[in-house]
Amino acid sequence: MIEEFRFIIFVSWNHVKQANSIVKTMDRQVVDTGDQTFGIRLSADGLEPPTHSVCNTAADAAYRDLIIGRISTKNFVDVYDAATWTYNAALIDMGLMRIEPKDMIKARDEN
């Protein structure tokens, strides 16, 4: 049985491109889509402009070691172990909210 780990990773918005580049070098499965790993827009009030992005990812032991060794050491990254943190609890701890896309806000307000 393969041991699986989960991580919730926050990146400051100014470093999203750098974080996506790091992910692409670490995981061959995301070479084509790695530019989208960190794309969820977050801010303290849920409004533009974004200050952070987040991804929630599964990892085997080898990938976990890469996350800990190559990502969590960056000063623009905060890593939460999903074994002890839920996604919502991590968002609250970071003081962040998701910025809803304008078309979703418009559709919600029309209903």
Shape: globular
Distance separating the two termini: 47 Å
Provide the helix percentage: 25-40%
Number of helices: 4
Mean pLDDT: 83
Structural class: alpha+beta
The residue ranges in which pLDDT falls below 50 over 5 or more consecutive positions are: none
The number of strands is: 5
Strand order in the sheet with the most strands? 3-1-4
| Biggest sheet descriptor | 3 strands, antiparallel
Range of strand content:
15-25%
Domain count, please report it. 1
Can you describe this structure?
With 111 residues, this protein is of the alpha+beta class. It has one domain (5-110). It has 4 helices and 5 strands. Helix 1 (16-26) packs antiparallel against helix 2 (61-71). The N and C termini lie far apart (47 Å).
Compose a concise summary of this entry.
This protein is an alpha+beta fold and 111 residues long. The chain is 35% helix and 23% strand.
Question: Which key phrases capture this entry?
Answer:
111 residues, globular, three-stranded antiparallel beta sheet, alpha+beta
